[in-house]
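Quick entry, no commentary yet.
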Amino acid sequence: MTNPKNLENWLHEKAGPAHDALKADPARAVTPDQVRYTLAELLAKAEAAGGYPLPPEQREWVDAPAVGREWPTCEALEADQERARLHDDAMAEAFRKDPAYAVELLNSILEDGDQGELLIALRQMTKAAGREMLTPFDPAEWLTGAEAVAAFLADAEATADPAYIEHAHQVAARARTIHGLEG
């Protein structure tokens, strides 16, 4: 079991000050338009760096049909590997890099009142703090509706981890029993 004090310290030392600074000076925020690039801008950057268009030998390899379950490892396809990471890992990294985003997302979820989404975000934030679990608790107690159970199971399925999926089904069964939900 992990020490919730470490998560609390992370929230107080990183997430809280970032949120307070953003709240005090909203002009510090980066707009979506400042972050997003158009495809033309990305291609122009790649072309300037000499990475686009691909040399003919790489283009031939990229366009070749798959012959099995191989996974490309060439540098030109690193972006594909990045997308293949588990969503939780990517979210945990995003929360570590930008605690203000973690606070903003958590506030948005709390405002919407979606318990399933809240549990998912808390798990990801716990991972961001380097912990597997905050305190011993039964998530089934918080899965009070069919939608929350469905979201919880969908998230588990997305991990493709058989042990976690089995555990999630056990939690869902407990939630249905505790709250009298139909399965």
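second:
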Amino acid sequence: MPACWTLSQGIGLTYLVPEETGMLRIRVLHGPNLNLLGTREQSIYGTQSLDDLNSALRTLAKELALKVDLRQSNSEGELVNWIQEARKEYDGIIINPAAYTHTSIAIRDAIAAVGLPTVEVHLSNIHQREEFRHQSYIAGVALGLIAGLGPTGYLLALRGLCDHLTAVKRQKKTSRPVPARRAAKGTK
């Protein structure tokens, strides 16, 4: 049965679950103040709690046969440690660095150092907000960036990262070195 989820305004998206994901593992990191979702600046971040968001991510991960590890921290150093640890056990990262997006070269460097495909997510559109929020240190080392779609952005990031990792796996399986062909003497 195909995986299906509904976006706002009742628009449904249906995707076929990849036959062979090999139980991909994705680490999802929520940055500072995201533990306050549902109560913090609802006009910007909405009314859904972090627990609700994580529940939606777990549900989609199950449908896609993914393992997700969901973590939240207000500490830059802890986020850096979790990014570095991901290199050993995970295939990709989804991160909402929140305010660290605009200030943390340490998080940017950690993502670059581990070399895992990373999708940056923001609940609000950072480019429609204050000028200081327009700069992302993370975007330059991320596979992609999703902003302004609320909690749906996380679901799109999970789906997109799953598709990317599955395509990379398939490409590795089907890519065979092409032996150099030498023409026999006297032929072209």
